[in-house]
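Researcher: Go.
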Amino acid sequence: MDIRFLYKKNRAFQKINSLYKTMSPEKVLTLWVLCFFACISFFTSLAIINDRFLVTVPVYGGSIKEGLVGTPRFINPVLALTDQDKDLVAVIFAGLTKKTVGGEVVLDLADSIQESEDGLRYVVKIKDDARFHDGKPVTSEDIAFTVDKVQNPIIKSPHKVEWEGVDVEITGTKELTFVLKKPFPLFMETLSLGIIPKHIWKNLNEDQFSLSDLNVRAIGAGPYMLQKVVTESGIPTELQLEAFKHYTLGRPYLQTITISTYQNEKYLLKAFTDGDIQRVHGISPEKITTLSVATSSIKTSLLPRTFAVFFNPNKATPLADKNVRLALQMAIDKERIVREVFYGYGKTLNGPYPFDANQGTSEYNPEKARELLLTNKTIKKASSTLEISLTTANTDEMKKVAELIKSDWQKIGVDASIKIYDVSDLNQNIIKDRDFQVLLFGAITQTPSDLYAFWHSSQRTYPGLNISNYVSKTLDQNLEILRESRDETEKLSAYDQVVKEFKEEIPGIFLFSPSLIYVTNDKNTSIIPEYSYDASSRFSFIEQWFRYTDKVWPKTYKKDVIQFIQNIIH
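Model: Structure:
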């Protein structure tokens, strides 16, 4: 069809055309200038509308490559012990609950959890669409099976103590009840334990459980599923994971994750520098200062690890004197430790709980410490010298901290000899038998109720962790309240009393909490917790990480946009 025909048939166009032909060149120029500015105004208005109403949202796709020092052995929530194990468990497995980046407990595989008034029964309903990576549904049988393996003493799960005295009653394919002997307010957090599929593990006995290759070729119900394991001489060197689109908390935005393992920090740093990987965890604070990355690429989060000096008066009589313990505390420059050993990536402590914002600071006063030390008659008679041994783990950071403490104590007349043990030897022989005078050690304390395991008198013998053999009826009562009470006012009062007793009696010297250090060199957006319960908690909500974004019009803004345009017109 000839376009001219359409113009002739359209009277409006005919009139405009006639008018245009009668216009002078000056008026034609003016008309085109006006049209030009009208177009600019129109498109400017569109840009304003876009800036005001369009929102940025993540879109699916992209990947990350991360490196770790060490090799995962147990990608199994029942057995996971090392940081490498826990990292893989965090992305492959899912529990009934999950902790948010702010520390709040939310439902994961669970559709609902009803707690009884007495705090002894938890009725759980599992989401209908909850499934494992092989497509099989997550059922009550899987939950009960996982708990049974954790509780089995032969398997030696690190989570066994958390599940002692807990019975499981299956009331349906997707429903079960946990029955506790005593109230435990943190049980909702305990339910974050990753669930293993019974149909895959059921034919393995206790001896086979820890030896099975299923501990590496894991199948869970978490945000990512294991697609491929690359090995060298039987050792996993690369694990390739793909987003699980049926994950209960939503399909992850990142499509793939590749985790490479390295023998030591040197190889890890080289891979990062060469661009083979974009993310690393486990680099020492000292090495962080050597990396050529933007400050924004270094993400930190305070870890719930309380490093302290624990006293054992049974092995060194002068330590029974409170003034001696106070003197040893006042002689330690905690700020120097955080500054010189951790390069500022940490926090000094003056109490047992790292996240306490009101703990204040301990007094650093070597002169006063010296005076207090000499109030002990035994020390005064021994030519003003206290000889003690300081025991710690064979790690670079702990050895440096021990040397600084030794130097500080020498200034007040204390002769400290340092004893170094490998971590396994330290745990199995020294701590188990309480065979030390003074111990430099780190304890994980996520919440105040965790203090029970380290300070209640019932925990003085192995496997209890009251390694100072500290006994106090008042402390026991308050720790029981923190562990069992659901009255927040009562718990707050109990915690204040605990802190007060620690400050007055000094059963140990609380030194510092280190920070999780996570270095990225990519454009992915990661949601990192402000406080991490362990290193693997950086993956707590990895399904929300994303690489790409887009701008969209929210449906809820339709009326606002219309009103905005009307305002422009009028």
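Model: Residues 63-293+521-548 form a domain with the D-Maltodextrin-Binding Protein; domain 2 fold (CATH 3.40.190.10).
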